[in-house]
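Quick question about two entries, pasted in order.
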Amino acid sequence: MSSDTEYSSQSLKGAFLFVKQCLLSPRKTGSIYPSSPALGRAMVSFLENKQQSTIIELGPGTGSITKTLIKSGINFDDFYACEISSDFVEHLQKRFPEIHVREGNALKLTHVFEELIGKVDCIFSGLPLKSLPSKIVEEIIDQEYEILKPKGTVIQFTYDLRPKKSALKKRFRHVGSKIVLANFPPARVDAFIKE
């Protein structure tokens, strides 16, 4: 099987899997459509050192943002993904065998990546924070804060384009945002630094 055929096959499987997960658990999926490459590029634009950064992607789903991160030139050895859906985990492990994909809940991030506490440079998050209860969001943010290095970055996207106060501002300093209209639905990317 050629790499193009294999890629098309994985993309098609990913699309069906995404729709299935969205129908079964819309609040966990948090979207009606996979993220676009444009959204991935906007997220990557906030990452300063691609080659020497230890990265965790939270909620990679079928891997649309993951693919863009890989294309940006990050170091595979230091790229980890945390996904709650076992179906998505299996798909990601087949699609991206070069990265470290683990099944787990962001509420237990420091348990899932115990060996990385205080060593992570950047967290890319596709978690649907706006649709989760505030108590759960606070616990996720606490986990992110604990696992990041000082000056570590959280890059979070949301479909809420209004510049509202983010729950991340309670623990992190907001350093920038970008609106991505070339995504369905349009999204906003925000970057935060741990101080």
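Here is the second entry:
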Amino acid sequence: MSFSAKLLKWYDLHKRDLPWRHTVDPYKVWLSEIILQQTRVDQGMSYYLKFVSLFPTVNDLAAADEDQVLKAWQGLGYYSRARNLHATARQIATEMGGQFPEKQADLLQLKGVGQYTSAAIASFCFNEVTPVVDGNVSRVLSRLHGLTEPIDSQAGKRTLYECAWQCIDREQPGLYNQAIMEFGALQCVPVNPDCQGCPFKSQCVAYASDTVKDLPVKGKKTAVKKRWFYYFYITDNNGVYIKKRTQSGIWKGLHDFPLLEKENSQPIEEAVAEGFQLLRLPKSAVVKGVSEEYVHVLSHRKIHARFIAITLPSLWSKAPKDVLRIDKKDLASFGIPRLIDKFLESDILAQ
């Protein structure tokens, strides 16, 4: 029995019942793939269902405000992907009559759609013979064929892609791609895979050479930078003051509070004094309290955040131009980073 036939037999027995597997609608497949690049299936399911409910078609997503899209994405991280999702929906709606391209080469012209996502849409929805190579597939092929080049190097990527092309089922490419991704997710897992129950045990180079735990090989990780955020949670009677992040970098397009950002930790008294001066807060402003430290870890950054709660007896008439006053009850309708959400949920100072 060929590798493909054996894999498809395994898939028929073990595949999970997932909503995006019951459709060949490229919009829904695209949504699922973008979301699952951010998180595991069990966590991504609720986001997928939310997006399909809020924006049933690509035209609905295109017509939405950016804040609506970012709010729906809240908690997934990498908000540039949400902005690309929105921009691509508008491109498809306005330039393509709401119809996705059917060929991978054309899908690659869409904003935020790369080799992996384009291959998934083209093969799942239109049965184009093109291999999907994600983390799960990379792990399966690296172990099965004993590939030792780092999978995040250019040479390693070329080798993986060539291997994927050799293995793909020419008759059922979409089904095959889903099967090998599922095999990596459920059977050939990163740590302690069930090699004894693997249908490819007899032909797996890594199993034969006892290198399963060593493959795939990855290059050096990017160093994680530390940053200290001192947020000023400023309120008056019914209002709270927020600021939209317009600069490039993390959380662009989301709203948070006026911020003092530092490369090193500093005494809270100094941070408060510097913040008062930077924001030109009135003398009538009162420091209500300072939160505990919140540690928020991103892929390339570790943020140590503290929130300084400040109350004003009246409107902040000299607030910076980029600071917006809103009713406290309306804050939930704005897209905010998960870090801000955690503070609002758990800290008594935010109540």
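Reply: The beta strands are 225-235, 239-244, 255-256, 259-262, 286-290, 294-297, 301-311, 323-327. The mean pLDDT is 94. Hope that helps.
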